[in-house]
Design the sequence.
């Protein structure tokens, strides 16, 4: 099974010239979903990962499945204002402006081994902000995992420059 075949391409979304890589088709295919989760988990089995940090929203779906397979806890990384207790916030750049993500201040214990999970890495801004939040709380970010990499946008390399290994399952050229 080729996982790339289970990912829908939507041209000119969210704007002309962009090809959106939609993993909802992969999530809806039981075999593809299972294979993607298994492939994300495999390199980390037995490495004593304490927490999976999933980036809103598709990272919640994938991260929950990965956490279950690794017998780890789950940390939601959310958009500003969505978490009910005291949070730590990071700002990151968008193409036009900025956005913010948050995690609970008590989400991770100093020294805990954390695996970051999301569906796709493009420019890497959100993932970089998440790594920085986790690091500020004292976590050891073991790796960042994504189903899709858009290597032309440089996000995976941006995360690697933070000293965090990156695992991706499928790459697509372009935006």
Sequence:
């Amino acid at each position: 099974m080729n996982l790339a075949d289970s990912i829908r391409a939507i041209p000119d979304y969210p704007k002309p010239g962009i090809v959106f890589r939609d993993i909802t088709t992969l999530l809806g295919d039981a075999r593809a979903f299972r294979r993607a989760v298994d492939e994300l988990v495999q390199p980390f089995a037995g490495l004593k990962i304490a927490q999976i940090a999933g980036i809103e929203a598709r990272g919640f779906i994938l991260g929950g499945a990965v956490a279950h397979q690794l017998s780890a806890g789950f940390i939601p990384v959310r958009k500003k204002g969505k978490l009910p207790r005291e949070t730590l916030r990071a700002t990151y750049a968008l193409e036009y402006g900025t956005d913010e993500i948050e995690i609970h201040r008590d989400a991770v214990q100093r020294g805990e081994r954390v695996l970051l999970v999301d569906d796709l890495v493009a420019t890497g801004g959100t993932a970089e902000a998440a790594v920085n939040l986790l690091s500020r709380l004292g976590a050891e970010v073991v790796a960042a995992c994504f189903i899709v990499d858009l290597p032309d946008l440089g996000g995976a390399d941006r995360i690697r420059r933070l000293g965090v290994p990156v695992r991706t399952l499928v790459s697509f050229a372009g935006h």
User: Anything to note?
Assistant: The chain has a mean pLDDT of 96.
